[in-house]
Amino acid sequence: MQITIGACGPVHLSCIAPPSKSFTHRALIIAALANGESEIIGQLDADDTRMTARALMQLGICLEWGRESIKVQGKGGVLTSPAEEINIQDSGTSMRLLTAISLLADGPVTLTGSARMQERPLGPLIDTLNTAGAKISSLNHPGCPPIRIEGSIPGGDISIDGSISSQFISSLLIAAPYANQETRIHLIGEPVSLPYILMTIHSMHAFGAKVVVDENPSGETVFIVSPDYQYKPRTYQIEGDFSSASYWFALAALCGGTATVSDLNPFSTQGDRRLVDILEKMGCTCSKEKNSITITRDMDKPLTGIEVNMADCPDIVQTVCMVAATAITTTRITGVHHLRIKESDRIAAIANGLRSLGGIIETDEDAITIHPAPLHGGVIHPHNDHRTAMSFAILGCFIGGVTILDAGCVTKSYPGFWEELRRIWQNAVLC
Question: Where would I find the Enolpyruvate transferase domain in this sequence (predicted)?
């Protein structure tokens, strides 16, 4: 599947944000560990979240996925060893969050995934759990899936390097209420994507667990989780996703006009809500209501570049880069080293894609610098990375003549993306 995008002028769009992928993953797993039936309302129905649901069913959880909600029959932290390996394809969130809770199964669990997933690192999480008493082994390449998981969650003092993926920490946190004793998770180094850890804690609190955040005398952050507060079943509403909404805000920033996205919580723990502030600094205006956010761009006022650290909001880096490529001054984005281990090497994807469209871009291990340059059409291959496809599609609406190959990869997080973009494009002023 490939889609070619023509240029359009000012947009005047209103749309509803898709449900949060991150909150859907967390709610599914936590509800599966609670003791009784939970209902998750307004879930994201996408490839990744379906992978988590399917994996939980392989672990013995009864789950009914409806159109408007999911009913999950939690088993109080008791899981079943599946007869076959669990293949979660390309869902890195599923792989990481399921690793620790698989220790609650009554026998070994094997987690595997796509060829790309088998290249993505799990080593720090595996080493941390093994040091704590688990028995996890990589079956092919050291520190990567597929992995065989056995043992239990003993709790106690656990130290983990948070500089590679926040999901390692979230995996430990979600499983911790079912450890044999109080768990104290010590963070080594500066954690990346800290808002995702806060989302995990928010979800845990919603289902009745307690997480105490402490700082020891050396300045080290410690998360303390007690087994006295295990998850309780409940009805849980999934909030809108800022990562997916980012494309429509960027569309208004690039093409001019107004984008209003509803079902967004302006005070969400989602780190990607920072895009609103970033776009304001680049020259857009913003207004916030109780349940929606509006971005406006006056095309008489050019966008300007910025210098920004985006370590805590990696999923909108590509979106910001598309906007930066049309600014009249240089943009430098730092704190992005962990983008190299996503669904693709996203730093390379940004650089190669923009260069193929005439962009001038420099990269190093932890930074991306984008200089002003005239852009033209071209062909983008996202290499099965949904965010690469969507971000370059939005840029295509500004410059025109951009063809996205493998366009179907967006179903990983936003199955309705192309339909929404077509509706918006048809109602915009064509260039």
Answer: 17-421
